[in-house]
């Protein structure tokens, strides 16, 4: 982050950046190894373990809209603290689960916690960050997310090899600590505008057709993004026959974001067409995935993964910034919560359909099929967002012309 931007970043936003890093460290240290624990020590099938993870994701993203409305109604700080403490209880509970219903209860708790703190935290970032540096702050947040992912691999591997109980308690402690940091150090972040009822807030967001359309289009982005956790590792395993290679490919994505995100954001800061940039980034992701159809060595896999990472570096900071630009000031949390449906639906479809198409391609001896589909998804998102930007610009021009007349 540039020194000027860091100097202009309020103390509260810097505190939010620290908690964001710690949350990603705790989350990614636990979740990948939870699957291994369920299928290994507990003896569950992969499908059953996947169901637990699916319940956690649905509990979070499915209720994020309501969580955002709650944050707008009762304040961002209090909602964030409550969500962090509930997530802490859910993660820590995994250490003591023995029966299936107990694991599902822990998954629901951890998901519900996320449905409260995630939209509240995103809204707090948007409200507390000055307009002039908001895009840079979101870009730096993306960097810290990937630093947390890299660090979590070290912590998760070490604790999981020792005992999963300690890994679960560590992850729970990270979120509990973040809750206490927010409670005692973060300034109150109350909505200064007239408050609306929960149902009225929900209705307002749903009636915003342009924002609903934006959220629907982003499902394509998350379809591509989820391949990083599903088909890309599977392809790396199939091509190299080495689990070490899987870690190299995934780490290359995170390390490239850590090193280059701020530079990419700096290159693009003079380009005002944010929706077009999101579409461009998504297309670059899709093209990087398409090139995987021709990858037959580890280094080709890494090169394609780096192109995929470049696409995320272009898209992600603008995706977060655009939500705040759509939202009225008193409904920022609700808008961020509703926007979570793009991840809930797009991510779920990406996991299921992406895996199904990959298996189909293997059976039909058409290895190019899943990656060609990713290219078309990237093209579709880029075209839809470009058209949407053109329509918004035309609408703004018409309004200016009418005002002058």
UniProtKB/TrEMBL annotation:
Compartments (UniProt record): Cell membrane
Major facilitator superfamily (MFS) profile domain ranges (all copies): 12-390
Record keyword Transport present: yes
Topology of the protein relative to the lipid bilayer: Multi-pass membrane protein
One GO CC annotation: plasma membrane
Ranges that cross the membrane: 12-31, 37-55, 102-128, 140-160, 166-186, 211-232, 244-262, 274-295, 301-320, 332-356, 368-386
Predominant cellular place of this UniProt entry's protein: membrane
CDD domains found in the cross-reference section: MFS_MdtH_MDR_like
Coiled-coil regions, chain positions: none
UniProt keyword list: Cell membrane, Membrane, Transmembrane, Transmembrane helix, Transport
Superkingdom per UniProt: Bacteria
Gene Ontology molecular function: any one: transmembrane transporter activity
Pfam families: MFS_1 (PF07690)
Keyword Hydrolase: no
Name of the protein in its database record: Arabinose ABC transporter permease
The species this protein was found in: Brevibacillus aydinogluensis
């Amino acid at each position: 982050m540039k020194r000027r931007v860091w100097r202009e970043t309020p103390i509260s936003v810097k505190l939010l950046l620290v908690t964001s890093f710690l949350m990603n460290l705790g989350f990614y240290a636990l979740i990948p190894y939870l699957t291994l624990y369920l299928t290994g020590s507990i003896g569950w099938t992969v499908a059953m373990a996947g169901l637990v993870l699916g319940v956690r994701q649905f509990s979070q993203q499915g209720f994020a809209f309501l969580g955002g409305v709650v944050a707008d109604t009762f304040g961002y700080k209090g909602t964030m603290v409550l969500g962090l403490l509930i997530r802490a209880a859910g993660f820590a509970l995994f250490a003591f689960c023995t029966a299936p219903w107990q694991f599902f209860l822990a998954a629901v708790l951890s998901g519900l916690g996320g449905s409260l703190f995630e939209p509240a935290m995103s809204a707090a970032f948007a409200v507390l960050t000055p307009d002039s540096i908001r895009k840079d702050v979101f870009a730096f947040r993306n960097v810290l997310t990937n630093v947390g992912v890299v660090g979590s691999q070290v912590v998760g591997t070490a604790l999981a090899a020792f005992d999963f109980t300690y890994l679960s308690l560590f992850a729970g402690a990270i979120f509990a600590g973040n809750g206490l940091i927010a409670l005692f150090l973060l300034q109150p972040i109350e909505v200064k505008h007239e408050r609306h009822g929960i149902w009225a807030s929900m209705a307002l967001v749903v009636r915003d057709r342009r924002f609903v359309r934006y959220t629907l289009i982003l499902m394509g982005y998350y379809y591509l993004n989820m391949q990083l956790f599903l088909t890309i590792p599977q392809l790396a395993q199939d091509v190299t026959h080495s689990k070490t290679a899987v870690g190299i490919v995934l780490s290359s994505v995170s390390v490239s974001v850590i090193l280059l995100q701020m530079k990419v954001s700096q290159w693009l800061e003079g380009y005002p067409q944010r929706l077009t940039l999101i579409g461009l980034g998504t297309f670059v992701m899709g093209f990087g995935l398409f090139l995987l159809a021709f990858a037959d060595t580890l280094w080709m896999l890494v090169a394609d993964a780096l192109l995929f990472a470049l696409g995320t570096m272009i898209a992600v900071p603008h995706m977060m910034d655009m939500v705040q630009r759509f939202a009225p000031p008193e409904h920022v949390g609700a808008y961020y919560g509703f926007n979570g449906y793009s991840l809930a639906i797009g991510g779920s479809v990406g996991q299921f359909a992406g895996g199904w198409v990959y298996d189909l391609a293997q059976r039909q001896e058409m290895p190019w099929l899943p990656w060609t589909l990713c290219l078309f998804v990237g093209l579709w998102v880029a075209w839809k967002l470009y058209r949407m930007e053109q329509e918004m610009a035309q609408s703004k021009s018409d309004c200016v012309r009418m005002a002058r007349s």
